[in-house]
Amino acid sequence: MIEVQNQMRILASDLIRQKRVDFIIGYEQGTLAHTSRPCIIDVRTSGPEVSEKLVWNSYCSNNLSVYLQKFFAPPVQGRKKDAAPPLRIGLIVKGCDLRSVLNLIREKQVPRENLILIGLPCTGMLDKKKMEINKDELDIEKNIQDSCLECRFSNVKGVDFEITGKTREVPGDLYEVVRLFEARTRKDRLAYFEKEISRCIRCNACRQACPSCYCRECFADQKDMKWLGSGTMSDTMIYHLIRIFHQAGRCAECDACFRACPEEIDLRTFTRKLAKDVEELFGFVTDFNRESIPPLSTFSSGDSDSFITEPEEGG
Amino acid sequence: MDGNSMWEPKIVAFLCNWCSYAGADLAGVSRIQYGPNIRIIRVPCSGRINPLYILKAFQNGADGVLVSGCHPGDCHYISGNLVARRKFTLLKNFLVYTGLEPERIQFSWVSASEGQRFAALMDKVIADVRKTGPMENQIKEPRLAYD
Ligand code: SF4
Ligand code: SF4
Ligand code: FES
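Above: inputs. Below: predicted complex with iron/sulfur cluster.
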């Protein structure tokens, strides 16, 4: 890891010296021990020595691509052509970050030519919540994030600078959590879903943390909120169903939403379901292929009709 | 219905303007009988339906939702129902996964000439929802104190 960190710093300082970037987004040491936090360095005003600030370790779990879209969003007021020329961003990416970046590129939110991607090999990130429970800092496998256990993209591809190193092995069962949940009874599933979201305080942190949630006007900010619910489905339930549904074919399984949630709500079980369905039904995975078409922006005449209701005695 | 014999299912049907709504019209004009539990909402195309509408219908007291459009290949806007089909497949799977009864959310294709099919479909959906019973109160809110 130290080796990777050194290489990353050298690369970053080269980029700054050659004036190829305006900003570098990476990780720095957090205020507490055993923490890292994202840092956005404006290198137009600093020398190459700032690259010494960058760190790389098992605490770098944040998905950095969440900051990207704001750099390239069209101006709220004024004409687009009067806006300042887009900035050039150097971004440190691991597997899940890169998948989110490619998602943003596919959805035309971020221009690829303005990015310089530095890909790092990832051996999995530590879960702070698990570490608190296990009190065993050193046992990596025991304290690793659940999302990393199911990750098959720790080895980044298609970046501008790739630092090679040890990565994770591809796990056997990618959707175990979904299969286990599907096997439960309907009442049981509903009870679990309700129990989880009953803790939700609607802080919207899960939406803010997610790199795919960039809409300026979100359905969740609609005016006719029914906070207490007058009918059979509460607004919180609808918020979760739709937020997660909007991730179909887009979620990078980075678990940023889960980490952001102050109530530790299990969002994974549900985001994974859509990933599984999209892969099984439409053969789409949010992988490192920049050219692939998002599954809900296209169709095939051979898509299954099996969910269609047929009246008994035909028409 | 466990002594609750007064209960009648309320079903919201989203029908596309060009086929299914015309199919419903034909059923009416031909005086084909079907249950009165359907509230029809006309939309331009099945591709126009946002999953949020479906959930809002449940929130506002529907016991079941039916979405119907033109048969694949017949959409007035050429591919609206093909795009919608992917969306609906995922949505139905997902709602069932989170614990909704599959009978409550149904999708179908009805063309403008299929008045008979429309009536039969309505009867089937009504019967399905009736069997499933009233939408249970899924609200466990507000949480008043930290437990
Ligand atoms: S839904 Fe959650 S896991 Fe998926 S991309 Fe967004 S933040 Fe990451
Ligand atoms: S972060 Fe957690 S508490 Fe906040 S809105 Fe999302 S699920 Fe609810
Ligand atoms: S117009 Fe009927 S489904 Fe598109």
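Chain A has a mean pLDDT of 88.
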